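=== Structure Prediction Worksheet ===
Name of assembly: unnamed complex
Input type: mixed (protein and possibly other molecules)
Chain count: two
Listed entries:
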Amino acid sequence: MRDAAVELVRATKNYGAVKALTGVDLSINEGEVVAILGPNGAGKTTAISLMLGLRRPTSGEVRLFGLQPTDRRARSRCGVMLQESGVPRLLKVAEAVDLFGSYYASPIPVARALELAMLEDRAGRRIDELSGGERQRLYYALAICGDPELLFLDEPTVGMDVASRHTFLKNIREFAGSGVRTIVLTTHYIEEADELAERIVVIDHGHVIADAPPADIKARVPGHRVTFMADPTLTRADFSGLPLEWLDLSGTSVRFLSNHPEDVLIALIQRGIRPVNLEVVGADLEEAFLALTNPAGAAA
Amino acid sequence: MSTIAIRSASPTRRPAPIGRTLYKQTRAQARLLLRQPAMSLIAIILPVLLYLLFGLPHASQAYSPTVSMGAYMLVGLGAYGVGLIMVFTFGATVAMDRGQKNDLLMRATPLPPAVDIAARVLVAIVFAIITLMVLFAVAFAAGVRFEPATWFAILTYLVVGSLPMLGLSLTIAYLISPNAAVAIVNIVYMLLAFASGFLVPMSQLPNLVQQAAGYLPTYHYGQLAWSAIGVSTESVVVSAAWLVGYAVVFFGLALWAYRRDASRRTG
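=== Predicted Assembly ===
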């Protein structure tokens, strides 16, 4: 059996009267790739902060490799990409990677770290001259430059376009190897979690509400968001019996969430409804959860 | 896949050697300061400029039977310049990193906070020495002469005596909002420097200021430095004792402010 890289034992975190995390039990084994999903304010940032030792739990315990998360021996085995943090902007890209590498015993060579982060041609650039996507890749380079066993990635693809996001996720997957490194990532996007993770932990209102492989989780969350314009006389009754998870009618605009959008649309057209400006997109998880946890927008 | 498998197989990994981390952190801090000429150059130019304006015209006049006005003001403006680096340059970089949240990621890495502070202190000391060298050269050109041992004593007293002010600077950097910190530090320091006779000889200051000055850290810092050329109003031991006391107070406050800041933002 493999050892736990990250352990939360009945971890609770309150900010004054606000309960950010309530009695969370979570154990992530070495070699696992785990995505933590949840809407903003659900507690995933708090969970990551506890794991990193940036915050202390109000009660319960947090351990990294069996040590306190603030222990330098534990931190020396971790690489971190933090959404809300900056780096000194006047350093050059290669200088920053070299600096962060010096925090670890056996860093990856700077050139190699830049290559893995697709930043070879930006080595001499100053950080304040980078684009949003490049800066995100720099944060990734800083996270991996210490050759970490455990990698924390907080919203790693924010600010990237679709193409670079795809390549970037592929790089992360390769870096993770197969059971070689442990990865904990937070994200809004279910596709991203699906592509990378073998296990998804969903946090909402400070509780773990799901902890399962991606396929199981996806089955519980409406996969697509459909929007179109229709006659304002359309009512909820027109949608009765259709496989919807959530429906919103306001004026001529119609929005719904469904795992089977094509079935719904075929049925609507058969009922004589003509969807104009039709758009079907993968629902992002945050929206889906908001819908599911909001009784006022309950499904038809 | 094989190209990616860099990781060493050793299951228990040691932390990085502190010496290497300190060296790289210090180099990075020095680069950051050099790339902000508004901060690095002002600290070097300002004391020299003030010396040229106010020191040189009276350089050959006598301050005491053995010490010229030029020598007296050299030490005063040296104290002003080094203090400026310790209070302003050093504190402003800490406050700015805090403002840009650069410290958040660093806190999650294995970098010990003490190493980060030590790197900043080393850079401040190097900058202080550079500032003094420039100022010494200007004074020498203006005809100020000391024994080599005296030059060395002035330099040592000015650098070592300024260290307690790092604590004051850190306290302000962690206590006050990063935007306000720079302005407040400047005003506070200007008042301290003025009241301690760095810019205008003590004897020309209002009586009330002269009496209050005896309680200021910068006053005893100035007296320590002036003792190197024999024009101090108190013994070296008294100056040193005051400065050690202030160091304890300031670094105690800094530690409290650091923890308060850390628990507010990440508690």
